[in-house]
User: Fold this.
Amino acid sequence: CTSLIIQNSFPKSGINYTDPNGKKYIYAVFWTQIINNTVNPIELTIDFPLDSFEIPSSSGNFMKLLVPSDTMTIDKEPMNDYGLKIKYFLDNNRYKSSSLKRTIKPKSSTAFYVVPLSNRGVRGTLRTGFSLKGQNLFYSVNNKEILSGKIDLPAPQSLLLKK
Assistant:
């Protein structure tokens, strides 16, 4: 099998977060697993925009996407916030740019967290997830797509042969 699989979770969260200055936010914790079923290592790069964006279905609701450096493991799935130390992370990272780089070995996988942080909750259910178009990674938040990184896939073997 020579494929790449992206698995996105449902949200889990404590919903409310108050920063050290008393400002209130709404958050959720998601995780994504990327499985490399190819015979080559792949390079994963996530670069979320520094600026917040408005959620189209929820006027006046601005969201920022954050990616902690922690690795999600399946044993953390039943835990609150999937085991992420959310208050510590948000206290120290809510104003920083958010990026992640990982090499995924052949026949291996990696899993990581994504934390949407907004000034108020969305109407209805929050659904998010990564998708791949070519080598570009997009993160969708309730049908709004944000260019958020790339996966460097090796060229097909036939293209690597020298004449």
DSSP finds two helices and twelve strands in the chain.
